[in-house]
Amino acid sequence: METILTNARLVLEDGVVAGTLAHADGVIRDVSEGLSRAPGAVDLEGDLLAPGLIEVHTDNLEKHFVPRPGVIWPNPLAAALVHDVQMAAAGVTTVCDAVCAGGYDADNDYRRAIFPDMVAAVERGVAEGVFRIDHRLHLRCELSDPNFAEDVAPHVARPLVALASLMDHTPGQRQWRDVATLKRFMAGEGLKGADADALLARRMERGAAAAATNWPHAVRLFLEQGIPLASHDDTTAEHVREAAAAGCVISEFPTTLEAARAARAAGLATVGGAPNVVRGGSHSGGVAVEELARAGLLDALSSDYVPASLLQAVERLTHAPGLPLHEAFALVTSRPAAMLGFSDRGRLAPGLRADLVRLRFMDGTPVLRSLTVAGRRAL
C-alpha cells in the first residue's frame, strides 16, 4: 500500500523544495515538487522531510550498560532497547553502535567485562526484530590496552560489524596530548592528586608499548575482513600519513586544522563531533568543528556522546559558517552513507530505502514529528 506525504519541505541533495514523496514496500517510489491531490495523501503542514540520519560513532549504548561509575546494568537487552529509542528520538534511522574493545586502563576493566555483552545485545535485538531502527557495530579498538588482541579477535568477523576505529588514548598522545586538560577531565570523574598521577604514569608506560604492537595487528585483522578502518583523534600530519599508509579511509575527530588538511590531501573523509558544534568548541582542547566546516574540511558529523546533538548541529551550521540547510543535512545523511558504503539510504530518491525524518525547528531547537524506517513508522 502506497503512502503519500505531501505539503512537505523536502531536503534533497541540491536544495530544499516544497513537494511530495511517495513510498511503498519500504522503498521510496516518487519524489516530486508541488502538492498531491491524491485521496489519502498525508499533509505534513510544511514540515521538513529529510532522509533518516546515519550515525557513524556513538558511545551512547555504553551509558546504559554503565549508568553510574561502578554500576553495570544486569539486563543487556533492556539497556540496548533504551539506547535504540533514544537514537530514534534523535532522528537516527541507521546507527553504528561504537563498542569499546579494550580499555584506557588495564586496572579498570569494566569495558572488558561489558564488551561481549554489548555485542550480543545488539545482535539479539537485530535478530529478534525488536529495535526501532537499523543497528550496526562499530568496533572502537583501544590500542593502548595490552589485552586488546584477545578481546577483539572473536568479534572481527561478525556480520553486523560495519566500521572499526584505531584509537590511542595514551596520556600525552592525540586527544590527550595536553596532560593538564586530561587531569581536569579525570578530576570530573573523581580522580585527583596522587591517585590521578599514579594512574597517568601507569597508562603512559603501558599504553605506548601496547599501541605500537596492536596497531599493525588490528590493521591486518580488519582489512582481511574488508571492514572500513578509521583513525581517531589525528593531531599531526604524521598521524594522518600513518593512517593512510595503513589503509584507513576515515579520520574521526581530527583535533587540529593541520590534521584535517592532511586528511583531505590524503583522501580520508573527516568526521567531526556534533556536540563540539553545539557547544561552540571542544571539551578537550581540540579544534572547533565549525572551523573545519568553514575551511571545507568536514565530511560528516557524529553525535559521539549526545544523540540529540546531530539535528542541533545541523541547524547551528546554517548560521556559522552559514551552510545551506541541505548541505548541513548531508553531513548526517548522504555523506556518512557514502563513507560506510550504504548505497541504499541517505538520500530522498526513488529506489532507496524509505528512511524518513519529519521535523521542524523552533527557535533553533529541532522538534521531531515522526520517524519512518524502511517504510514503517518507528516514532
UniProtKB/TrEMBL annotation:
NCBIfam families according to UniProt: phosphono_phnM, PRK15446.1-5, PRK15446.2-6
Native source species: Hansschlegelia beijingensis
Protein name: Alpha-D-ribose 1-methylphosphonate 5-triphosphate diphosphatase
SUPFAM superfamilies recorded: Composite domain of metallo-dependent hydrolases (SSF51338), Metallo-dependent hydrolases (SSF51556)
Record InterPro entries: Amidohydro_3 (IPR013108), Metal-dep_hydrolase_composite (IPR011059), Metal_Hydrolase (IPR032466), Metallo-dep_Hydrolase (IPR051781), PhnM (IPR012696)
One of the protein's GO biological processes: organic phosphonate catabolic process
The organism's taxonomic lineage, starting at the top: Bacteria, Pseudomonadati, Pseudomonadota, Alphaproteobacteria, Hyphomicrobiales
Gene3D superfamilies: Metal-dependent hydrolases (3.20.20.140), Urease, subunit C, domain 1 (2.30.40.10)
Enzymatic class: hydrolase
